[in-house]
Write a structure and sequence with these properties.
about 240 residues; transmembrane; mainly alpha; membrane; transmembrane helix
Length: about 240
C-alpha cells in the first residue's frame, strides 16, 4: 500500500489496510469529512466570533479543527497502510502526530517553557523537562531527515509526472510556508525597523490560521487521492 511521500513500489493487497472494502469509499469519506470540518470551523468563526480574529486564538474553532484534522491524517495512514507506517515509513505517522501535538500546544503545555525556548535548557527548569525537550527535538530532526532522504525525492518525481496527490501535497506545503512567514510578522519586521499597524498584524494572524487549516484539508485530500489511485491500480477501477 502506498501513502503520500513514501516508496511507490507495488505492495500486496492487505484486507486490514482497507483494500478489500469496495462498498466503503473510504478515500471520498475522509476527504469529504475533512472538507466539512474545515468549512464548519470557518462558519463558526464567522458567525459566533466578532472580530474574526477572536476565533483564532488558542482553543478557538479554527485551531481545534486544525488539530482534529492532523489527527485524522494519522488515522488515515494507519487505516490505509498500517504495515508501512508502523514499519519502514514510520516517519509519516510521526510527522502527523507531531503536527497534531503542536496544534494542541503540547510543546509547552506540560513544561515550564516551550520546547524550542532556550530558557528551558539554560534556566531553572527541572532536568526531566530538559531531557524531554531534547528527546522531542531529536525526534523532530530524525523525522525531518527521513522525510528529506526517503520521501521528498518520491514526491518530486510524482510532481513531474503530474500526480494529483503530489501537487496537492506541494500546495499544502506552500500554504504552511506562507502561514509560518506570517506568524509574528509584526515582531519579525520590527527587528528590521519596520512597524505594522495593529489592524495589519491582526489580519496577518487571520490569514496565518486559515492557511494552516486549508493546508491540512489539502493534505487529507492528497492522502485520499493517492489511496484512490492505489485502489484503481490494484483492482482495476475506482471506488470513489
Amino acid at each position: 500500500m502506498r501513502i503520500p511521500f513514501t516508496d511507490l513500489s507495488p505492495a500486496p493487497l492487505m484486507p486490514e489496510a482497507g483494500i478489500f472494502a469496495p462498498r466503503i469509499p473510504a478515500p471520498l469519506v475522509f476527504a469529504a469529512l475533512a472538507t466539512l470540518c474545515g468549512a464548519f470551523a470557518v462558519w463558526v468563526a464567522q458567525v459566533y466570533y466578532s472580530p474574526l480574529s477572536a476565533a483564532l486564538h488558542e482553543g478557538g474553532p479554527v485551531e481545534v479543527a486544525s488539530a482534529v484534522l492532523w489527527g485524522l491524517c494519522a488515522i488515515m495512514v494507519i487505516y490505509f497502510a498500517p504495515g508501512r507506517v508502523f514499519g519502514s515509513q514510520w516517519q509519516i505517522l510521526a510527522l502527523f502526530l507531531l503536527l497534531f501535538s503542536r496544534e494542541m500546544d503540547f510543546d509547552k503545555r506540560f513544561l515550564d517553557d516551550g520546547i524550542l525556548q532556550l530558557r528551558l535548557y539554560s534556566g531553572d527548569a527541572p532536568y526531566w523537562q530538559k531531557i524531554v525537550g531534547l528527546v522531542v527535538i531529536l525526534m523532530v530532526l530524525t523525522v525531518a531527515w527521513r522525510l528529506c532522504r526517503r520521501n521528498l525525492p518520491v514526491l518530486w518525481a510524482e510532481v513531474r509526472r503530474g500526480a494529483a496527490w503530489a501537487w496537492c501535497s506541494c500546495g499544502a506545503l506552500g500554504l504552511l510556508v506562507v502561514a509560518k512567514s506570517l506568524d509574528g510578522i509584526g515582531r519579525k519586521l520590527a527587528d528590521f525597523g519596520l512597524t505594522l499597524d495593529p489592524q495589519t498584524v491582526a489580519t496577518a494572524m487571520i490569514y496565518e490560521e486559515l492557511f494552516e487549516l486549508f493546508a491540512v484539508v489539502v493534505i487529507v485530500w492528497a492522502i485520499s487521492l493517492l489511496e484512490a489511485r492505489v485502489r484503481r491500480d490494484h483492482l482495476g477501477g475506482s471506488h470513489l
